[in-house]
Please model this.
Amino acid sequence: MQYTEMSKQELSQVKAELQKKYDDLKALGLNLNMARGKPSVDQLDLSMKLLDMLNSSSDMMSSTGMDCRNYGMADGLPEMRDIFSQMMGVEPENVIVGGNSSLNMMFDFISCCMTHGFPGCEPWAKQGHIKFLCPSPGYDRHFAVTEYFGMELITIPMLSTGPDMDMVEELVSQDASIKGIWCVPKYSNPLGITYSDETVRRFAALKPAAKDFRIMWDNAYCVHDLTDTPDQLLNLYEECKKTGNIDMPVIFASTSKISFPGAGVAAMAAGPSNLIVFREHLSFQTIGPDKLNQLRHVMFFKNIDGVREHMKLHRNLIAPKFETVLRYLRTELTGKGVASWTEPNGGYFISVDVMEGCAKRVVSLCKEAGVVLTGAGATYPYGKDPKDSNIRVAPTYPPVSELEQAMEIFCVCVQLAAAEKLLAK
Amino acid sequence: MQYTEMSKQELSQVKAELQKKYDDLKALGLNLNMARGKPSVDQLDLSMKLLDMLNSSSDMMSSTGMDCRNYGMADGLPEMRDIFSQMMGVEPENVIVGGNSSLNMMFDFISCCMTHGFPGCEPWAKQGHIKFLCPSPGYDRHFAVTEYFGMELITIPMLSTGPDMDMVEELVSQDASIKGIWCVPKYSNPLGITYSDETVRRFAALKPAAKDFRIMWDNAYCVHDLTDTPDQLLNLYEECKKTGNIDMPVIFASTSKISFPGAGVAAMAAGPSNLIVFREHLSFQTIGPDKLNQLRHVMFFKNIDGVREHMKLHRNLIAPKFETVLRYLRTELTGKGVASWTEPNGGYFISVDVMEGCAKRVVSLCKEAGVVLTGAGATYPYGKDPKDSNIRVAPTYPPVSELEQAMEIFCVCVQLAAAEKLLAK
Model:
């Protein structure tokens, strides 16, 4: 029965039962964490052989005859560029392989836009008040980068097909102070949805008022499928070739959730004009990335097929955790009108919308009972969810047994917060 | 006999002999490189056991109980911070260990000054025309970073005690648009000299007109001694504590020329205010450095004594190369008035001042004869040596046999260019 259809008396009774359950669970004194999208220890163990790839008797030469131990090769190892080229759907010569963090490359790209910008345009820092579009719920660290550089963040609602493209088109075509948009196009963080073909085509066909408008296309979960029917993402880069917008997208990926989060390899890909600007930046910033770690990755994965095979091993570990979360949501919350959620085919998150005005309360109740969740509001610009409704659940890190305990508590808290809310009206 | 004391006829004869030698050497069709400060293959081989430190059965935990494979630990591994703390002479808690490139950390620090700056001051990018001091001859990549960000570069002459401190003090105390100075205080690039105690004390005692004046103290060669009588550098950080200028120095070091240039570990150290500003920057830029590579380094070197022992192995390989270069300079050029040079106790370079107006010609003659040198002028801001005199010789990369050939050619070219110059008068 929907909570909203209950009488005050019925609701009070439900609430009392929930409170009892909650108190009992809280008394267990648990310490569980579903806050951040971290791979589990089991997942990290999948890549341990990576550490055997290089030893003191290894060949240190890349295919180009360069000693990978020494300085140089700002674009990264050709073999690693090939793998990312296939992951990202961009020609190898348009791929730059960097250090261990794609967030670092995104930050540096935005920083480069701020201080230097693009031919024929002032640097962003000299253009006065500028804005960035933030499809929400979205990834807090993306939004934070543009906030750090003083931009105004504009919330774009997320639909089941991706960002609300009517709104994106209207804003972007009219306002030259809008400089870009953050996108996680496949298995988006936190919704887990993949942008529809139409959405991708509409992105490629944008006619921005700002000549230096950029799409930050963070394809973080491009090979992170969890089902036999994975989502298919249309290739934005190819679509932009057709529309003549090849300098609009800047594409990112990494092996952080393929090999090791702390010691993986990151890459970016873009059209010629962006690369000229960013390669100049790089030429002053560094004498080259860690090519030995790239060499390790090349030897371990060999090619894109090796990456895909490896991702099946991750799937074996992660899919049961997603299923656990979804099982609890379905069993405990269906038909009560207290929450809706996504059922993604991949990625790292399940997004739960609890009753409006209840997200903070749910996160707080969970915390008191020993379950840490991503802060309520974190998935919106400035950490402010206008409906106080969205909660990002990250199932990958805890073992299934802990996840079951955490989800039991979570579902009780979602219901308890809803009952409290309705009774307070 | 000094060339300047020769008659035209004598000089013409000398020149003809040199030209003959040059043509014979050129006919050998050599391909030699003394351009950049790259470790040789032999030196890289010294650190190969570093690659055995981690394998698939290794313990992945740091002393703090953190899994080094996963996200986190923006300041780097405590054990690695300890080693750098001792290399740099700054408390471990004031050390941040980063990725593989100290140049990258310097660039990011300057970039952070440009876009954000310091409490109570506007970001540098909003302060209009700003300037940076460049002790010259110096390191081209340093100067290039500040040039990239649009600053005016001011040449400060290098004396045998370090930068001309009379000039530094006068400029810095009067001009608030001067935001900092680049320093390689020990075995400076390219002179190989170490700043005197008085120079360091005068740096610590500066009273800059700009509240946000910073000393970029790149201690790149802090443990890179080549003789039994190594230079001693006074600790600027400790001196700045005494003068109350603790927020002035920003100190950098790396293992690029200790372990691997392409896969080493870099670090910076600074006082509290700089760290607050830069840690905020880092918190948006990345979720942490490559801690596995740091762990490898900790296991390989163990502590500062391990680093010092390792540097003796480098010395065994490099010292004979420096001696080779110096032997040729002494034997071929002494008493002719065509060149002067430094005889460093460490570092990576020997600096040669050829006859005024001859450096470009020498580099060009060498190139035609198959010897690549650092471009003439590269050691000055904007690549312009006002006297066209300084040439940086980098002895480390070629084997001794090649170095001998290269130096034979170099010495002929230095003399030939001088003879040409004097005859053209």
Remarks:
- The first helix of chain B runs from residue 8 to 27.
- DSSP finds 13 helices and 13 strands in chain B.
